[in-house]
Amino acid sequence: MEDTSAAPTHWAQELDLEPVKNQNGPAEAATAQKGVRQPWREYWPLTCGSRLYEKFQIEFPDILSWRFDSTRPFERPWRFWRDRIAPGKEGDLYKGAEESKEEPLLRQRAASESAIQADSRRNLDEQLKKLNMIAVESVPFYYLAPLDLYRVQKPYRHQMPNIDGLKRSNVVTQCHPVTVYEVSGNEHVFTLEKSGFEFAKCPVSMEDWTESSVIEQYIPRLEDWLKGYLGCEQVSVYTYRFRKKNHNAEKCDWGGPLFRVHCDSTEQSCNAKAKLYLPDTPESLMKGRIRCLNVWRPITTPVQDCPLAMCDARTVNKEDLVSMDIVYPHYSDEAYEVMYSPTHRWFYKKGMQSDDIIIFKLGDNSETEATVCPHSAFMDPSLPSGAPSRVSIEIKAIVFG
Questions:
Q1: Which of 155, 223, 381, 390 could form a disulfide with 304 if both were Cys (CB 3.0 to 4.6 A apart)?
Q2: How far apart, in whole angstroms, are the C-alpha atoms of residue 82 and residue 380?
Q3: Where is the segment annotated Disordered (predicted)?
């Protein structure tokens, strides 16, 4: 076994979350929060000789010896480390805000929009009236609870086995009923540039969805297709994920749909991930436009009981986005949790076919386009009981140019 005593942290790098050039709209929300604690830093990365380090030497030596390799981006052993958690040790992950006695920050947080954002939202609302889209009313969506806790603690979630004294996450959610509009026939209204998402038809098809077929066939073909579709210089997929409702019923690595409003990255962390996953990228590309995109598609078609809903970026204010740490064994990533605002407008496509995809932004250093797109799975109440459970796949790609 590899000697781990000389390398206690295997901390590949601290993601360089320097402010990106874009200071237009939501991008400002990810700038440093002075005076805000990051509770996980008291435990990770490990310090050689500490009690926690000695515990990991005995119980989890493979975690100490594992090293990130940018040539093997799909190697993610923490997916299985998470299973090695003692029952009842998950902490208060995603408990309801009504259980907290803390004063909601929302009472002191007035919903504010810039003049440009207000005009964009009003224009979208006028367009919705003319299109007469079908709406699904009073759908429960789970947002970050606006607690005073987040004045002093940054939201986080860690991906290690149980660590005594550190909750897996300090994220607390709060349910809000929202209206979700069905876009069929009006997909053209939504674009990556304005909405942060768009619906498209993708000719890349698969007969068999397995881990190996995705890595060996789907991802290379999808990278080629995306490069032509976007007209960009380079596309590199850095991760993928199957999702299946009731996935715990099977022994597999498929996650369940995420019923929480969130953004998978921030503008800053997208640039940093490009350095982590693609360290040999020419400087000319690193200094240019960099986007991170998610490409989501259903595998079960045409009915999905819990489709993916998208929040139009034109209706999201920078104050709605709260940066969150996602702590892996080798680095700390950053994403957004989202607080509720009545200005948000939500959309989904019902009955997606096997060639239907949703492309949406995880981050973009463009100064003139939408930068991120909040999203969430939801249970579609318009479907009859017993509708097939949704199975889907998503890939995340770094796009240059």
A1: 390
A2: 30
A3: 1-34
Burial of residue 319 (number of CB atoms within 10 Å: 0-12, 13-18, 19+): middle
Residue pLDDT, tens place only, 121-147: 888 888 888 898 999 999 999 999 999
Q: 80 is written with which tokens?
A: 């299985």
User: Distance between terminal CA atoms of the chain?
Assistant: 43
The candidate with the shortest Cα–Cα distance to 341, out of 121, 127, 189, is 121
Residue 172 binned pLDDT confidence (cut-offs 50, 70, 90):
very high
Q: Which is more confidently placed, 305 or 398?
A: 398
Rounded to 5°, the CA angle 30-35-37 comes to 80
In a domain, 7, yes or no: no
Q: Would you state the pLDDT for residue 323? A: 96
Alpha helices, DSSP H, located in 73-175:
78-81, 115-131, 149-152
- Spatial distance between the Cα atoms of 74 and 286, rounded to a whole number of angstroms: 22
Task: Check residue 226 and give left, alpha or beta (phi > 0: left; psi -120 to 50: alpha).
Answer: alpha
Range of the domain at 349: 25-400
Domains in the chain: how many in total?
Answer: 1
Which segments of 158-205 does DSSP mark as H helices, in order?
none
Judge whether 13 lies within some domain: no
pLDDT digits (tens, 9 = 90+) for 326-371: 998 888 999 999 999 999 999 999 999 999 999 999 999 998 999 9
Is 12 inside any structural domain?
no
Among 20-24, 254-258, 331-335, the least confident range: 20-24
Residue 8 domain-assigned (yes or no): no
